[in-house]
Amino acid sequence: MTTEPQMRPESAQERQTVGPMILVIDDSEDLLGAVKTALRRRGYQVVTAENGEVALKRIAERSPQLILLDMRMPIMDGWEFARRFREKYGRSVPIVVMTAAEDSKLRADEVGADSYLGKPFELSDLYEIVEDTALRE
Amino acid sequence: MLASTGITLALIGICGGAFLLTYRKIPYRLDHIQKINTLTLELFSENIALFDFYFPSSRTQADARWDKFYRLSGQHIEELSQIDAIDQTLIEQLRRAHREIGTLIDEMRGIPLKEELKTRRLADQVMLRLNDMVRNTNMLIAVTQDQLKRAQNRADNLILFAISGICLTALFAASMFDRTILRPISVLKQGAENVGRGILDQRVEVRSDDEIGQLTTMFNQMTENLERLTKAREEFLSTAAHELKTPLSIIKTYVQLMDEQPPGPEKEALHEVLRILNRQCNRMTKLIQDLLEVSRVQLRRMVLKSKPFELHHLIETLTREMQKTTNRHQLRILENVPVIVDGDADRIEQILVNLLDNAIKYSPTGGQINIRSQRRGEQIEVSVQDNGIGIPPDRQTHIFERFYRAHAGLPYDYATSMGIGLYLAHEFVRLHGGQIWFESQEGKGSVFHFKLPAKEWPQELLPTLHLQHSPDHARREDHGKELQ
To answer: Of A55, A69, B5, B226, which is most buried with the most CB atoms under 10 A?
Structure first.
């Protein structure tokens, strides 16, 4: 991803690719870049997708252990993605809804997500929630 | 339905009127018959009158007397025959007797005085006719009295019938009035009340196509329009809030990423700037949320998501979080009674955040901020006290009004609010059925209090409440959290 801002050279720890795989779905490339950088720094592998359709393709190629899902997206939105994903894969992979909508908990309940993160969020909350859900397996 | 009531009442009136017209003739008729009867009886009882004809001296007087009888009884008989519904054979007999008396009397007048025998024979015949007339009129009187009696009975029945008819019609009319006017109006009133309370998805059932039905249809159209407009406005607002928050979240995430650098001289220089950037991001987020809330309160679309929760936990968590935003102030909980409040925890948290935010903002030199939560009977009173700049007396009356800024002249950092915080606090307290008030002295500080209903829960009910001991809003709401 060329859009990822290079704050500083990545350390050896950041480049390691043995951590759990996380799929981040958001229509903003800028946000994807930021979340990717943050999560990689914490040792996670990150796959990104700009909408639900791309995300479903990515899942077929790689098998993520956690999905961070934005709701409002073009082509295929979060609701549709969650529905299709659950249809195909069941509840094997936890989904965390990540939305700027007012009531993120309500959105999470709508799609049967495991957790939620209201935008804008604190990085510490992102780490906490990812750690909690990804390691729960 | 009102027309049929009118028709029924009119029919009853016509029946009554027609009856009264016939009924009124009966005493009139009786009057005539009685007069004939009296006239006849008078002559009959003093048959001596006939012998007046024997004497020349009294003959003129007798003439006059018989003339009068003949004329008067004739008149009465004629009038009697004019009146319908009477036995015409009786009248005919009466008339014949009367006519014969006239002939006989004429005959008697023609007889010379001396012929006593012939006069007596004629007089006997007159007496016979008079007797006939008396019998006849007596019968007529009996018949008429009987009719009168029957008419009275019928009148009694008719009155009874009319009264019950009128009562039934009135009852019918009242029920019709109730069903076609009062009830629909009351339903419409209920609908209007609901619209006033912000319930817009209801429609009033149209039951008729009269004016009330048309009014109901119009009311429904109005409600529908209002609902569409309100929905559109709400949709716009939440979309706007979403769109505003999206770039903010990107900025905020990068700001935090930059601040994650390992310590060093470069970090030292940046840290303070990034802290400010992050704080302003949070402030902007809160402003967007507040704006959304204000619009919702104004549109009366605010719905409380009430369930019992432990207020003392919320106060503790929140005080801890808010303390992190400032190092010039000491936030101290002086009293915090354990209490379960049945309310919308998010909104009550917003009330507290807004009060604490103000306390911090308006005591710029720092100092102590005291928080108390005390039981007051069936209510809980929470107060936030600061020793800041206070509120000028002339600005105190409008403090809870929307977009009113008590310190309008202050620089941005001082008074970042748009005059929303206290307005929202006031509205949220009001929605919970509580009160909010304050005391303030310029230069010395302010105390804000709010009271919420908080009945005491029986100990054995507590496990059924499913209280959240660690409220999830602590993580979700990120106000106050700063880069450490």
So the answer is: A69
Q: Distance between CA B427 and CA B445 in Å, rounded?
A: 23
- Across the interface, whether the CB atoms of B249 and A104 are under 8 A apart is answered no
Q: Which amino acid is at B372?
A: R
Beta-carbon separation of A28 and B254 below 8 A: no
Percent of chain A with pLDDT over 70: 85
Q: Using pLDDT thresholds of 50, 70 and 90, give the confidence band for residue A10.
A: very low
Write down the H helix ranges in B178-310.
183-196, 211-258, 265-298
A119 touching B (Cβ < 8 Å): yes
Is there a contact between A68 and A25 (Cβ–Cβ < 8 Å)? yes
Query: How does DSSP assign B274-285, residue by residue?
Result: HHHHHHHHHHHH
Question: Helix A123-134 crosses helix A29-41 at what angle (to 10 degrees)?
Answer: 70
What average pLDDT values come out for chain B (484 residues) when binned by 10 residues? 73 78 74 81 67 64 78 83 72 84 81 72 80 82 84 85 88 84 85 82 82 87 88 83 89 89 77 84 85 77 80 91 86 90 89 90 86 91 91 83 65 58 88 92 91 81 62 41 38
Give the Cα separation of B102 and B295 in Å (integer). Answer: 110
Give me the torsion for CA of B214, B220, B226, B227, rounded to 10°: -160
B154 exposure class (CB count in 10 Å sphere: 0-12, 13-18, 19+): middle
Average pLDDT over residues A32-44: 90
Q: How far off is chain B from A14, nearest CA to CA, in Å?
A: 13
Q: Give dist(CA B408, CA B418) in Å, integer.
A: 9
> For residue B249, which residues of chain A lie inside 8 Å, CB to CB?
31, 100, 119-121
- Distance, CA of B307 to CA of B326 (rounded, Å): 32
Task: Count residue pairs from A and B with Cβ separation < 8 A.
Answer: 74
Reported pTM = 0.56
Gap between the Cα atoms of A130 and B334, Å rounded? 37
Note the maximum CA span of chain B.
Answer: 176
**CB contact set of B3 (below 8 Å; sequence gap of 6+):** none
In this prediction, the answer to ipTM > 0.85 reads: no
* C-beta atoms of B242 and A30 within 8 A: no
Residue type, B101: I
Are the C-beta atoms of residues B160 and B187 closer than 8 Å to each other?
no
Which chain A residues contact residue B480 at CB under 8 A?
A: none
Express each pLDDT in A89-135 by its tens digit: 888 888 899 988 877 777 778 888 888 888 888 888 899 998 888 77
